Automatic annotation (TrEMBL):
InterPro entries: BrxL, BrxL-like, BrxL_N, Lon_proteolytic, P-loop_NTPase, Ribosomal_Su5_D2-typ_SF, Ribsml_uS5_D2-typ_fold_subgr. Keywords: Hydrolase, Protease. Gene3D superfamilies: 3.30.230.10. GO terms for molecular function: peptidase activity. This is Protease Lon-related BREX system protein BrxL.
Length: 681
């Protein structure tokens, strides 16, 4: 393996805490233990870039795994060794329970099929997670032949155990120091490698999926749903990376196991683990009818009431499952929560407790090329850092810099804040380190998109209270309001209902004898300088003429359109995108003018709006001859509002009743009237 720049930085920044992730492959399928157990040993013996030391360490790890893990069929051999030698060491998942009959604790070691092993109460009290689901540990198991002679004796006992997780207390200081040596892009790639993936072939959206999967580990009471195709590693992170995560396979559990055992007061999974993940969410079920309601209450407040007093916990709930169809089909036949069990799938109150809906379809199906051969953080160090980050927060220091739009409800705001906080802790964990505008905007966009996906499904179910889904934000005092969409809602070549960013306008040309009518998008950027330039090469002559007319009207009518802003002191870059057979961009003067004004005023144009109109140099508006055709085309392209010159009103009396119900037609009389009606209030 050739070391790259990130490997070299990692070796300097995290000496002793990194491991080559491809070393796992030779052990992954051979020994019956999860990834973090193997990495615990690799981190102990192979945390170096020296190839010879790595090979020597690998031999030790192989020997320990061979000697201390029990394969199926070897149970009696290991028990025999314990009897002959007096004790053996093994790596196994250990659970315990109270035997009320004898007033003592007994442990279970599943790999040896032993369920009545002696264990000291002190050992149980120090490691109480063994009472709920258990954990992997290096166990010293002894055998006492004298006890074996007793009636109902328990000859096997736990002499000592060492949980397979990091015991160091200063992990966050190590993390802070190491993070300083990476740029943001390098750190993101290094994080991806630390969970075993190779970022090189991944899209930005796929990396974002991976980062949001990490959030329940660093943010208390974080609730997440991920649905998508099979084979994309949805449950991998929750099963293999951290001992602080518990995977409920098949989705079936009991209220007692999940929350609290009323008979002895023993706390459940959400109290003992940072993350409880339900795999195969379509099969989620509880043994009691009120199980889903208890979970719903817990997801809202982090509390549940069982018995006398409410109990607080901070474990996050993660639901992962598969689509049997593609996203577009799922949205045609229902909504994206469709694969959930019937008690949840149409319950908007349950959905409201979900902080993020992760688009599993953005992540590729895993194959060999997606697994890294480079260095990453050892899983137990990473898991320990993550669990300590739950006690820190970064949100209060950045909130004054962000202004969220009016569409966010109280629960939306809570969800978005939690997502932003988690992402910032992952990317810039040191509370003393500054958060750049670039990092903050990335986190805000991601948080709004993933929460909006929840809101869109609530809207599809038909509840009026969830109708406004136009999530937006403004960064800084002078920032521009930016609207965040969920890409699966509409295709790129149709007019969406979301407001367009400043400088962007959907427009229809009227067509003519040589050119059919068609849909265009005009995009304008403004900067220092002067003049208007068309970026299209070659620029269609007809479109250049439309731009020239718009530019002259911009200058001559600047006062009434722009107030005290001076257009001649700015340079405008104009780009035309066509979506139909119509390509020459004729008759788009009004669309260009509105885009120029919108960019300079830093105001968005209304969502769902299609604009029609051609200017002449004097500022008057040409007649529209085919208004009915244009209205029908606007409906076909997804527009909800058609903004058209008043001179087309008589023609539109002939529009069919069906079309009139599908589109809101607004008329404008002059340039200023058109601008006011096109811009968002």
């Amino acid at each position: 393996m050739e070391l790259d720049s990130i490997d070299h930085i990692a070796a300097r920044a995290f000496e002793g805490f990194i491991v080559r992730k491809d070393l796992l492959e030779q052990f992954r399928k051979t020994y019956p233990v999860p990834t973090y157990v193997i990495e615990f040993l690799l981190g102990r013996y192979c945390a170096t870039t020296d190839e010879q030391e790595i090979q020597e360490g690998l031999e030790i790890v192989k020997r320990q795994l061979a000697d201390r893990t029990v394969r199926p069929g070897e149970e009696e051999y290991f028990k025999s060794k314990a009897r002959e030698k007096g004790s053996i060491k093994l790596i196994d998942i250990i659970t315990a329970k109270l035997d009320a009959r004898t007033d003592s604790y007994v442990a279970t070691l599943p790999s040896l099929r032993l369920n009545n092993v002696r264990i000291a109460p002190e050992m149980v009290n120090e490691n109480d997670r063994m009472l709920t689901g258990g954990f992997y540990a290096e166990v010293e198991l002894d055998y006492d032949p004298t006890i074996a002679q007793e009636n109902s004796g328990r000859p096997f006992g736990i002499a000592s155990l060492r949980p397979i997780q990091l015991s160091q207390r200063n992990v966050l200081n190590e993390l802070y120091r190491g993070r300083e040596q990476f740029t943001l892009a390098e750190w993101q790639d290094f994080l991806v490698r630390s969970v075993g993936m190779e970022p090189g072939g991944m899209s930005e959206r796929a990396k974002n999926v991976l980062f949001v999967r990490m959030l329940p580990f660093v943010e208390r009471n974080y609730n997440l749903v991920e649905l998508g195709p099979r084979g994309t590693g949805k449950s991998h992170l929750y099963q293999q990376i951290s001992p602080y995560s518990h995977l409920v396979s098949g989705g079936k559990t009991t209220v007692t196991k999940m929350f609290v055992n009323l008979s002895n007061g023993e706390r459940g999974l959400v109290c003992k683990y940072d993350v409880v993940c339900f795999d195969e969410v379509s099969g989620v079920s509880f043994d009691q009818k009120d199980g889903v309601n208890i979970m719903k209450g817990y997801m809202e407040s982090g509390e549940f009431s069982r018995g006398k007093e409410p109990i607080r916990a901070d474990g996050g709930v993660v639901l992962v499952g598969n689509f049997d169809v593609d996203v577009e089909h799922q949205q045609r036949v229902g909504h994206l929560f469709g694969p959930l069990p019937k008690e949840m799938r149409d319950d908007t109150a349950f959905m409201d407790r979900i902080h993020a809906f992760v688009p599993g379809w953005d992540f590729p199906k895993l194959h060999k090329a997606y697994f890294t051969t480079h260095f990453g953080l050892v899983s137990d160090f990473l898991a320990e850092c993550w669990t300590r980050l739950r006690d820190t927060s970064r949100i209060s220091s950045v909130l004054p810099r962000v202004d969220f739009g009016g569409a966010l409800s109280g629960r939306d705001t809570t969800a978005v804040h939690k997502t932003i906080n988690g992402l910032l802790k992952l990317m810039q964990p040191d509370p003393a380190a500054p958060i750049s505008d670039e990092l903050l905007e990335w986190a805000v966009k991601l948080a709004l998109e993933y929460r909006r996906r929840v809101k869109e499904q609530q809207k599809r179910i038909g509840s009026a209270e969830f109708r406004n889904t136009h999530f937006s934000y403004r960064l800084g005092v002078d920032g521009i309001e930016t609207f965040v969409t969920t890409p699966e809602l509409h295709s790129e070549n149709t007019i969406g209902e979301d407001p367009q960013p400043p400088g962007q306008v959907w427009t229809l040309n009227t067509g003519g004898t040589d050119e059919p009518a068609g849909l265009y998008k005009i995009e304008v950027n403004v900067g220092p300088g002067s003049g208007v330039k068309v970026l299209n090469r070659p620029a269609p002559p007809a479109f250049q003429e439309s731009v020239r007319f718009a530019e002259q009207n911009l200058y001559s009518k600047a006062k009434e359109l722009l107030g005290d802003r001076e257009p001649r002191a700015h340079e405008f870059s104009v780009q035309l995108r066509s979506f139909d057979a119509s390509k020459n961009g004729s008759g788009l003067g009004m669309g260009v003018l509105i885009a120029l004004c919108s960019s300079l005023l830093e105001k968005s144009t209304k969502g769902g709006l299609a604009l029609v109109g051609q200017l002449n140099l004097g500022g008057s508006i040409d007649l529209v001859y085919n208004a009915v055709n244009l209205a029908e085309l606007a409906v076909e392209k997804g527009a909800s509002t058609l903004l058209i010159p008043l001179n087309a009103r008589k023609q539109l009396n002939d529009l069919s009743d069906e079309m009139i119900t599908k589109i809101n037609i607004q008329y404008y009389t002059d340039l200023r009237d058109c601008l006011i009606k096109a811009l968002l209030d």
